Amino acid sequence: MQGGEKIVLDPATNSGDSPQPGIHQLIAADGTAVTDALLAPLVADVDDAQLLDLYSDMVVIRRIDFEATALQRQGQLALWPPMLGQEAAQIGSVRALEKDDFIFPTYRENGVAYCRGAKLAGIMSTWRGSANTGWDPYEFNMATPQIIIGAQTLHAAGYAMGLTMDGKESLAIAYLGDGATSQGDVHESMVFAASFQAPVIFFCQNNHWAISEPVRLQSHVPLAGRAAGYGIPGLRVDGNDVLAVLAATRWAAARARSGAGPSFIEAVTYRMGPHTTADDPTRYRGVTELEEWAAKDPIARVRAFLLGRGALDDAGEAAVAARADAVAAELREGTINMPDPDPMTVFDNVYTSEHSILDRQREHYARYLAGFAGASDTATLEGNRS
Ligand SMILES: Cc1ncc(C[n+]2csc(CCOP(=O)(O)OP(=O)(O)O)c2C)c(N)n1
Prior knowledge:
This protein is an alpha/beta fold and 386 residues long. The protein is built from 15 helices and 8 strands. The strands form 2 sheets. It has a 6-stranded parallel β-sheet with strand order 1-7-8-4-3-2, with helices on both faces. It has a two-stranded antiparallel sheet with strand order 5-6. 43% of the residues are buried. Residues 106, 108, 147-149, 177-180, 207, 209-211, 271, 275 line the site of thiamine diphosphate. Thiamine diphosphate (TPP) is lined by residues 106, 108, 147-149, 177-180, 207, 209-211, 271, 275.
């Protein structure tokens, strides 16, 4: 990587345990400070108040996650992809970006969407099945949730190439998972990004599992090493260390803005919950692994760090808890009272112009809905959602 930093390509180090060779860290799992020559200068300006904000954001998005999971269990959401354990990776990265940087997320970056300013009910609407996206991509500079694994990396690379052509100074960031790095789209996007020196950050959250597929099965080298094969500098960072993730993303952002081209960040973290609420992780992973990672909890770590510095007290904790309570209440209220869309709007925004196949489908669906006319009970159309 840039600056002579070496990527460790020993398969034995790909377990994700930290500290380990090649993983940059600033706050250890017990909350003590770690020296890192590359990252430390990048966050030298971050004071206790800013760190407290990062902590508060993490507590809030964990609360969003718990509330959404509960709502799914209560039948109010069709599905939810938990971010439990990945709060530092989401908050540290998004807080390193400028407003005009464009984000290309997967389906799991709901914490990122929240920090970007998306409304809570909007974020939930996709998971309730009420809308294709819960925010206006152009208002928040954040694309719609991407379910097709890796596809958003192509969009990000193309957008970044466009930024260069337009002479813009902003950047694109693609969020992706460890599993996505096995996907052809991701490799194609890295080829283009490297060839055109596009201002794009590939931010990979290595949460160790692609549904039931462990990362060790997919890659015999650390994932950041894959980027090196394209000539893209890669950096492995402790993804449960919010300060280190903030620094790593600033590193990549500075490279992009200075014309140095793409970067790849492997944030080594862990998905502590299921893949989605439709998944049962106890069928494919052991409790010991979960316990090991619970001891590296990203929120407990920054909390311990703040307490150690005297930067967090009971009043501070109470303020954070109150913010989380308010967000949870708003989320619940907004979800439960969300109006159902007109069923026919499902055909909107598919094509920009008329399309004969879509016209036929629209007609069939209208006839199908008309078949319920006698029932006059909208509950019949909606099934047993509540
Ligand atoms: C092209 C494609 N293939 C398969 C799937 C089914 N699928 C959904 S999530 C997933 C695993 C993704 O794992 P990873 O990239 O590590 O992200 P994570 O869910 O762990 O955040 C798969 C295979 C899909 N959505 N798209």
